[in-house]
Protein backbone atom coordinates (compact mmCIF):
# COMPACT_ATOMS: atom_id res chain seq x y z
CA UNK A 1 0.00 0.00 0.00
CA UNK A 2 1.35 3.44 -0.88
CA UNK A 3 2.60 5.50 2.00
CA UNK A 4 0.12 8.27 1.25
CA UNK A 5 -2.68 5.94 2.25
CA UNK A 6 -1.22 5.64 5.73
CA UNK A 7 -0.73 9.37 6.25
CA UNK A 8 -2.88 12.36 6.87
CA UNK A 9 -2.24 16.06 6.66
CA UNK A 10 -2.04 18.19 9.75
CA UNK A 11 -5.45 19.70 8.99
CA UNK A 12 -7.08 16.34 9.66
CA UNK A 13 -5.72 16.04 13.18
CA UNK A 14 -5.99 19.61 14.40
CA UNK A 15 -9.69 19.16 15.32
CA UNK A 16 -8.42 16.78 18.02
CA UNK A 17 -5.97 19.33 19.38
CA UNK A 18 -6.85 21.54 22.33
CA UNK A 19 -7.94 25.09 21.59
CA UNK A 20 -5.78 28.21 21.88
CA UNK A 21 -6.35 28.55 25.62
CA UNK A 22 -4.84 25.14 26.41
CA UNK A 23 -2.53 24.21 23.53
CA UNK A 24 0.38 23.75 25.90
CA UNK A 25 -0.98 20.80 27.87
CA UNK A 26 -1.44 17.48 25.98
CA UNK A 27 1.84 17.32 24.08
CA UNK A 28 4.46 14.60 23.84
CA UNK A 29 6.72 14.25 26.86
CA UNK A 30 9.84 15.03 24.86
CA UNK A 31 8.33 18.28 23.63
CA UNK A 32 6.41 19.32 26.75
CA UNK A 33 8.99 21.76 28.08
CA UNK A 34 9.75 23.06 24.63
CA UNK A 35 6.33 24.57 24.07
CA UNK A 36 5.62 26.19 27.45
CA UNK A 37 7.62 29.36 27.88
CA UNK A 38 7.37 31.34 31.11
CA UNK A 39 8.29 35.01 31.42
CA UNK A 40 8.49 36.80 34.76
CA UNK A 41 7.72 40.51 34.56
CA UNK A 42 9.67 41.56 37.64
CA UNK A 43 8.29 44.75 39.20
CA UNK A 44 7.07 45.91 35.80
CA UNK A 45 4.09 48.25 36.27
CA UNK A 46 0.82 47.39 34.57
CA UNK A 47 1.79 43.77 33.89
CA UNK A 48 -1.06 41.55 32.71
CA UNK A 49 -0.34 38.04 33.97
CA UNK A 50 -1.50 34.77 32.43
CA UNK A 51 -1.47 33.52 28.85
CA UNK A 52 -0.37 36.23 26.43
CA UNK A 53 -0.29 36.08 22.62
CA UNK A 54 2.99 36.71 20.83
CA UNK A 55 1.81 39.20 18.25
CA UNK A 56 4.58 38.62 15.74
CA UNK A 57 4.06 40.73 12.59
CA UNK A 58 5.41 37.83 10.53
CA UNK A 59 2.27 35.82 11.28
CA UNK A 60 0.22 38.83 10.17
CA UNK A 61 2.19 38.84 6.92
CA UNK A 62 1.68 35.09 6.45
CA UNK A 63 -2.04 35.50 7.04
CA UNK A 64 -2.19 37.93 4.12
CA UNK A 65 -0.35 35.51 1.85
CA UNK A 66 -2.18 32.27 2.75
CA UNK A 67 -5.94 32.06 3.07
CA UNK A 68 -7.20 30.47 6.29
CA UNK A 69 -10.27 30.69 8.49
CA UNK A 70 -8.39 32.28 11.37
CA UNK A 71 -5.01 33.39 12.67
CA UNK A 72 -3.63 32.05 15.98
CA UNK A 73 -0.56 33.51 17.65
CA UNK A 74 1.83 31.49 19.78
CA UNK A 75 1.45 32.08 23.51
CA UNK A 76 3.65 32.65 26.53
CA UNK A 77 2.82 32.43 30.22
CA UNK A 78 3.52 35.76 31.94
CA UNK A 79 3.84 35.95 35.73
CA UNK A 80 4.55 38.68 38.25
CA UNK A 81 7.37 38.66 40.83
CA UNK A 82 6.23 35.35 42.34
CA UNK A 83 7.14 33.57 39.09
CA UNK A 84 10.89 34.23 39.28
CA UNK A 85 11.89 30.70 40.21
CA UNK A 86 10.15 29.03 37.26
CA UNK A 87 10.74 31.69 34.62
CA UNK A 88 12.68 31.03 31.41
CA UNK A 89 13.33 34.75 31.05
CA UNK A 90 12.91 37.85 33.19
CA UNK A 91 11.64 41.21 32.01
CA UNK A 92 12.63 44.09 34.28
CA UNK A 93 12.77 47.87 34.34
CA UNK A 94 15.94 49.90 34.76
CA UNK A 95 15.27 50.06 38.49
CA UNK A 96 14.08 46.53 39.16
CA UNK A 97 17.03 44.93 37.35
CA UNK A 98 19.28 46.50 39.97
CA UNK A 99 17.27 44.74 42.67
CA UNK A 100 17.86 41.41 40.90
CA UNK A 101 21.57 42.13 40.72
CA UNK A 102 21.70 43.06 44.41
CA UNK A 103 19.93 39.83 45.38
CA UNK A 104 22.51 37.83 43.44
CA UNK A 105 25.35 39.85 44.93
CA UNK A 106 24.07 39.15 48.45
CA UNK A 107 23.95 35.43 47.66
CA UNK A 108 27.48 35.43 46.22
CA UNK A 109 28.92 37.37 49.16
CA UNK A 110 27.23 35.02 51.61
CA UNK A 111 28.77 32.02 49.86
CA UNK A 112 32.19 33.65 49.86
CA UNK A 113 31.82 34.19 53.61
CA UNK A 114 31.50 30.42 54.11
CA UNK A 115 35.07 29.75 52.93
CA UNK A 116 34.24 27.74 49.77
CA UNK A 117 36.66 25.45 47.98
CA UNK A 118 39.20 27.08 45.69
CA UNK A 119 37.39 26.32 42.42
CA UNK A 120 34.05 27.62 43.65
CA UNK A 121 35.71 30.63 45.27
CA UNK A 122 37.34 31.69 42.00
CA UNK A 123 34.01 31.62 40.15
CA UNK A 124 32.21 33.44 42.95
CA UNK A 125 34.83 36.19 42.94
CA UNK A 126 34.38 36.67 39.20
CA UNK A 127 30.61 36.85 39.70
CA UNK A 128 31.06 39.33 42.52
CA UNK A 129 33.06 41.61 40.23
CA UNK A 130 30.46 41.39 37.44
CA UNK A 131 27.56 42.05 39.78
CA UNK A 132 29.33 44.97 41.45
CA UNK A 133 29.70 46.41 37.94
CA UNK A 134 25.89 46.10 37.53
CA UNK A 135 26.17 43.30 34.97
CA UNK A 136 23.62 40.49 34.86
CA UNK A 137 25.38 37.12 35.00
CA UNK A 138 23.61 35.88 31.85
CA UNK A 139 25.37 38.63 29.91
CA UNK A 140 28.82 37.49 31.09
CA UNK A 141 31.08 34.72 29.83
CA UNK A 142 30.58 31.73 32.14
CA UNK A 143 31.04 28.16 31.04
CA UNK A 144 28.87 25.27 32.17
CA UNK A 145 31.68 24.19 34.49
CA UNK A 146 31.47 27.60 36.19
CA UNK A 147 27.74 27.29 36.81
CA UNK A 148 28.28 23.77 38.10
CA UNK A 149 30.87 25.02 40.58
CA UNK A 150 28.28 27.17 42.37
CA UNK A 151 24.60 26.77 43.24
CA UNK A 152 23.62 28.44 39.99
CA UNK A 153 19.93 27.68 40.39
CA UNK A 154 19.81 30.30 43.15
CA UNK A 155 21.22 33.02 40.91
CA UNK A 156 18.40 35.09 39.44
CA UNK A 157 20.36 36.86 36.71
CA UNK A 158 21.71 33.63 35.29
CA UNK A 159 18.44 33.64 33.38
CA UNK A 160 18.14 36.01 30.42
CA UNK A 161 17.16 39.44 31.73
CA UNK A 162 15.53 41.89 29.33
CA UNK A 163 15.47 45.50 30.48
CA UNK A 164 12.34 47.19 29.16
CA UNK A 165 12.25 50.74 27.94
CA UNK A 166 9.41 53.02 29.01
CA UNK A 167 7.84 52.65 25.56
CA UNK A 168 8.00 48.85 25.74
CA UNK A 169 6.32 48.85 29.14
CA UNK A 170 3.49 50.89 27.63
CA UNK A 171 3.33 48.68 24.49
CA UNK A 172 4.48 45.22 25.59
CA UNK A 173 3.97 43.17 22.40
CA UNK A 174 7.45 43.90 21.05
CA UNK A 175 8.91 43.39 24.52
CA UNK A 176 7.51 39.86 24.75
CA UNK A 177 8.96 39.03 21.34
CA UNK A 178 12.36 40.33 22.46
CA UNK A 179 12.19 38.24 25.63
CA UNK A 180 11.36 35.10 23.66
CA UNK A 181 14.33 35.58 21.33
CA UNK A 182 16.71 36.44 24.17
CA UNK A 183 15.75 33.27 26.02
CA UNK A 184 16.51 31.07 23.01
CA UNK A 185 13.03 30.29 21.73
CA UNK A 186 11.56 30.49 18.23
CA UNK A 187 8.34 29.76 16.36
CA UNK A 188 7.33 27.70 13.36
CA UNK A 189 4.18 28.01 11.27
CA UNK A 190 1.43 25.76 9.98
CA UNK A 191 -0.68 27.52 7.37
CA UNK A 192 -3.83 27.09 5.34
CA UNK A 193 -7.17 25.46 5.92
CA UNK A 194 -8.63 26.08 9.35
CA UNK A 195 -5.93 28.42 10.60
CA UNK A 196 -2.59 30.06 10.10
CA UNK A 197 -0.81 29.34 13.36
CA UNK A 198 2.50 29.95 15.10
CA UNK A 199 3.91 27.36 17.52
CA UNK A 200 6.56 28.15 20.12
CA UNK A 201 9.55 25.83 20.66
CA UNK A 202 13.06 26.03 22.07
CA UNK A 203 15.89 26.78 19.70
CA UNK A 204 17.52 23.48 18.75
CA UNK A 205 14.24 21.55 18.65
CA UNK A 206 14.10 18.88 15.93
CA UNK A 207 11.30 18.41 13.42
CA UNK A 208 10.24 15.25 15.29
CA UNK A 209 9.96 17.17 18.58
CA UNK A 210 8.19 20.07 16.88
CA UNK A 211 5.52 17.68 15.64
CA UNK A 212 4.92 16.64 19.24
CA UNK A 213 4.39 20.28 20.21
CA UNK A 214 1.22 20.14 18.08
CA UNK A 215 -0.03 16.64 18.89
CA UNK A 216 1.45 13.40 20.16
CA UNK A 217 0.09 11.51 17.13
CA UNK A 218 2.33 13.54 14.82
CA UNK A 219 5.43 12.70 16.85
CA UNK A 220 4.54 9.03 17.26
CA UNK A 221 3.89 8.47 13.57
CA UNK A 222 6.37 10.98 12.14
CA UNK A 223 7.48 10.27 8.56
CA UNK A 224 8.85 13.58 7.32
CA UNK A 225 8.46 17.35 7.50
CA UNK A 226 7.83 19.44 4.41
CA UNK A 227 9.64 22.71 5.06
CA UNK A 228 9.60 26.11 3.39
CA UNK A 229 11.97 28.65 4.92
CA UNK A 230 10.48 31.98 5.93
CA UNK A 231 12.61 34.05 3.58
CA UNK A 232 11.74 31.79 0.64
CA UNK A 233 8.04 31.97 1.53
CA UNK A 234 8.03 35.77 1.61
CA UNK A 235 10.19 36.16 -1.51
CA UNK A 236 7.92 33.84 -3.50
CA UNK A 237 4.77 35.59 -2.33
CA UNK A 238 3.08 32.62 -0.67
CA UNK A 239 3.15 28.88 -0.01
CA UNK A 240 1.96 27.74 -3.43
CA UNK A 241 4.35 30.09 -5.20
CA UNK A 242 7.26 28.86 -3.05
CA UNK A 243 6.45 25.26 -3.95
CA UNK A 244 6.36 26.15 -7.63
CA UNK A 245 9.74 27.82 -7.25
CA UNK A 246 11.19 24.59 -5.83
CA UNK A 247 11.66 25.96 -2.31
CA UNK A 248 9.91 23.12 -0.46
CA UNK A 249 12.35 20.74 1.25
CA UNK A 250 11.74 17.26 2.63
CA UNK A 251 13.34 16.92 6.06
CA UNK A 252 13.55 13.96 8.44
CA UNK A 253 13.39 13.62 12.24
CA UNK A 254 16.82 15.09 12.95
CA UNK A 255 16.23 18.38 11.11
CA UNK A 256 16.71 21.33 13.48
CA UNK A 257 13.86 23.79 13.15
CA UNK A 258 14.62 27.35 12.09
CA UNK A 259 12.73 30.46 13.13
CA UNK A 260 9.42 30.79 11.29
CA UNK A 261 9.82 27.71 9.13
CA UNK A 262 6.56 26.80 7.40
CA UNK A 263 5.89 23.13 8.09
CA UNK A 264 3.56 20.42 6.91
CA UNK A 265 4.02 17.18 8.83
CA UNK A 266 3.49 13.79 7.21
CA UNK A 267 2.92 10.95 9.65
CA UNK A 268 1.36 7.52 10.08
CA UNK A 269 -2.07 7.63 11.60
CA UNK A 270 -2.09 5.85 14.97
CA UNK A 271 -4.90 4.34 17.00
**Mean pLDDT score:** 87
Biggest sheet statistics:
5 strands, mixed
Low-confidence stretches: 1-34
Distance between the termini: 18 Å
Identify the CATH architecture of the largest domain: Roll
Gyration radius, in Å: 21 Å
Structural class comes to alpha/beta
Number of helices: 12
CATH superfamily of the largest domain: Beta-grasp domain
* DSSP, total strands: 12
CATH class of the largest domain: Alpha Beta
Helix content: 25-40%
Given the C-alpha coordinates, what overall shape results? elongated
Any idea how many domains?
2
Topology:
Elements: E1 7-8, H1 10-13, H2 29-32, E2 38-42, E3 50-53, H3 57-65, E4 68-72, E5 75-79, E6 89-92, H4 96-112, H5 118-132, H6 144-149, E7 161-163, H7 166-170, H8 173-182, E8 185-190, E9 193-202, H9 207-214, H10 216-220, E10 222-228, H11 230-236, H12 239-244, E11 249-251, E12 262-268
Parallel strand pairs: 2-5, 2-6, 4-9, 6-7
Antiparallel strand pairs: 1-12, 3-5, 8-9, 10-11, 10-12
Helix pairs in contact: 4-5
Structure explained in plain terms:
The strands form 3 sheets. This protein has a 5-stranded mixed beta sheet, with helices on one face. About 35% of the residues lie in helices and about 25% in strands. The chain has helices at about 10-15, 30, 55-65, 95-110, 120-130, 145-150, 165-170, 175-180, 205-215, 215-220, 230-235, 240-245, and strands at about 5-10, 40, 50-55, 70, 75-80, 90, 160-165, 185-190, 195-200, 220-230, 250, 260-270. The chain folds into 2 domains: about 5-85 and about 170-270, Ubiquitin-like (UB roll), CATH 3.10.20.30; about 95-165, DNA polymerase, domain 1 (Orthogonal Bundle). It is elongated, with a radius of gyration of 21 Å. The chain contains 12 helices and 12 strands. A hairpin with a 2-residue loop joins strand 8 and strand 9.
